Amino acid sequence: MKLDNKPRLRSALRKLYAAKIDWSDSYVRGTAGQEAIDFIAMMAGLKPVYVSGRGFEHEGWHAAVLELAASNGLYVVAGPYWEAGREPSDLPDWFVEKVRKGLDEGRAHYVTKARAAADEIKALADGGRPTIEQEARLLGFPVCCVEAHYATAAAFESAAFEILSRRAGGDETEMKRLAEGPEPVVPESDEERALLAMAVSVRPVHHTSLNMCEKCAADPESPAAKLSAAYGALVDTLTGNRRRDPARRRRG
Hints:
single chain; globular
């Protein structure tokens, strides 16, 4: 892969790997490794927007990202979590509000090198909600995979509600009480685990933070596969094939 700013990208990668986080922790190390690839992909022009503070809420990492963004003249916009594609739910309002509370209250920092993208993000931060197509474009992800992400989220909500209903014997008062627990929808039996497994299917895309849709997973020439190849080529170019923790995790 030909890169016009290879020294700058390598320098940024080194600084990210010097972030003040616990690199001895396997989860932290793996997640930060993928976050680093995402950030560098944004700087290299493969990914329009990098999102900090969603999925990896680590102050040491966040500080390193903001410092690097400032030193490289990148645009940083603070705003609510993007939540596109929310269809009206047939689940009770109290339950929907409960399971979506973290998403509704979450805040992230969106980093980009393009002024036009920064202006678009600011408009969303002022109260807008992206369309699925807009979110996919800003993240640099296939639209079909972003659509699948929201379909999976809706399926998870339905499965979680059914689990609560079963535990409470259908009694709404008891369901509300259970929902106030710290982790009310963690499966406790093989039956509950199977129920969630049927609702949620995660297919990570190597080198990226994308989870691909079923169609992309079945096609080696799919948009998701091509994205993986592009990110892999970026890592190879910058590290001389010495890949560091090409982690796989949720989109963003």
